[in-house]
Each structure stands twice: as C-alpha cells, then as structure tokens.
Amino acid sequence: IATLFPIVWSFLASFRTIKDFNNTPSIIPETFNFDLFVQTWKDLKFVNNYINSFIVVVGSAVCAIFFNGMLAYAVSIVKPKGHKIIFGLVMWSLLIPPMTSMVALFVNINKLNLTQSFIPLWLMAGANAFFVILFKQFFESLPQELIEAAKLDGASYLQTFMKIIIPLSKSIVMVIVIFTINAAWSDFLMPYLVLNGSGKETVMVRLFSFQGSNATAVEVLRAVVFSIVPPILLFFIFQKQITEGAATGALKG
C-alpha cells in the first residue's frame, strides 16, 4: 500500500484542474477529463524525449549484457592469468560510493568530447560490478560439457559467449535487462550533465525543466504520469518473464 498509494494518488490527482486540485480534499476527482492530458502533452512536447529515453535504454541494456557478461565469462569460465585479481578489483569497486567518482567521470567524458552524446550513458551501464557478480554466479552453474564441446569444435571465446553462454542464460539476462531499463529510464543526473542543451534530453531531464517552468503543480503531476507509464507497462507485459527470471537466477546463483 505504501508503494502503490503515491502512484495511484498522482494518477487520480492529475485529472483535476488547478482549482479543484487546490480546493478538493477527496482522492477521487469529480470528473475524468482526458483533455487536460492532451493539453499537457502538447505543452511538454514529450515525443522527442521519449525517443531519446528509448535510445538510452536500448543502448544501456545491450552494453550491460555484453560488457558485464564478457567480463563475467572471462573470470568464471576462461579464467586467464590474474583473473582472481580482476574479480577482486570488481568486488572492491562496490565499496566506492558512486558519487565520489562523479566529478572525475564527468571530467573524463568532457576531455574525450563525449558530451551531448548517448555513448557515455551506454558505457556506464556496461561497467556495473553488481551485474558482473550476478553473471559470474550464473555462468558457474552452467554445464561445462557444452562449453568444452564448443571449444573442441573450434569456436572462439566470442562465439562461445554469444552462441552458447547467452542462450543458456536467458533468465539472468532478463533480470539484468529489467534492472538496466529501470535504472536508465529513471536516471536524471548523468543525462542532465551529459545531454543538457544538446536537444537529446531524456524524459527525466525534460520533466525537470518542465517543473522549473511556469507549469502548475497539477500539470507537473500529469507529466510525472507520462514519465512512469512505460516502466509500468513494461512490467505488466513481461511480468511472467520477470518473475521466472528472478526466481531461476536466484536458485542458480
């Protein structure tokens, strides 16, 4: 209830006019006027921001699976010389508060001329120690016979990863994709620092600028509703896969 109530209240309150919003204490509005949403959508000009957010989400999901998965594959199956040290550094990185590296990260992004580009946001998703650990635990539970058979057939490390490891790891891949989508869609700080003023602003950055304009409180609520609809729809559409993936990943991990 504590989780759902703010969402339900925001949705119901967004149907009110500013006068009703300030004067009416009831939760359920007297009328459900969808024209108010249409007008707010026109004021927001949200279409481009939706497209930008989807680009960030898709690129982040691909990088999260490929780069984190490849590192986990290296330290759990390939095991080159020094793999324990590499994994130790991955574990150690979890102890570093993310905000302490934010300034250095942005300085490097700026020096590499990657500002006003989606690339830094994608690459950040590909460097997630938590995902590496999840992948590693799952990969270690896979049947080694299939991996050895692929090696005997002359498959390269990349071919083994793409054609054997990933297809066998659909459950944990689904979990990581959902985590990545949720984080990438709701992230504000890095898209604001990297994309602000580029015309590539995401939904959350546009929501921030809309809140700072002359928009009323109820108009901001409608904008919030627009911003949370895609993740909610995604959850309901893939609810079965998410639940099964989380359960399977937990059991095998």
- Second rung of CATH, namely the architecture of the domain at 48-214: Orthogonal Bundle
| Major beta sheet summary | none
Percentage of residues in strands: under 5%
Uncertain runs are none
Which fold name is given in CATH as the topology of the domain at 48-214? Answer: MetI-like fold
Order of helices and strands: HHHHHHHHHHHHHHH
Distance between the termini: 30 Å
Total helix count? 15
Q: In the CATH hierarchy, what is the class of the domain at 48-214?
A: Mainly Alpha
Oligomer: single chain
The tally of strands reads 0
CATH homology group of the domain at 48-214: MetI-like
Radius of gyration over C-alpha positions, nearest whole angstrom = 22 Å
Mean pLDDT, to the nearest integer, reads 85
Overview of this protein structure:
- The chain is an all-alpha fold.
- The chain has a domain of 167 residues: Orthogonal Bundle (MetI-like fold).
- Helix content is 74%, strand content 0%.
- The chain is elongated and about 70 Å long.
- It starts with a helix and ends with a helix.
Give the key terms:
253 residues; mainly alpha; MetI-like fold; 15 helices; 74% helix; elongated
Task: Provide a concise account of the structure shown.
With 253 residues, the chain is mostly helical. It has helices spanning 4-13, 18-23, 35-44, 47-78, 83-93, 102-111, 119-125, 129-139, 144-152, 157-168, 170-186, 189-195, 203-211, 217-237, 239-252. 30% of the residues are buried.
Set down the secondary structure blueprint.
Elements: H1 4-13, H2 18-23, H3 35-44, H4 47-78, H5 83-93, H6 102-111, H7 119-125, H8 129-139, H9 144-152, H10 157-168, H11 170-186, H12 189-195, H13 203-211, H14 217-237, H15 239-252
Helix pairs in contact: 1-14, 3-14, 4-5, 4-7, 4-8, 4-10, 4-11, 9-10, 11-15, 13-14
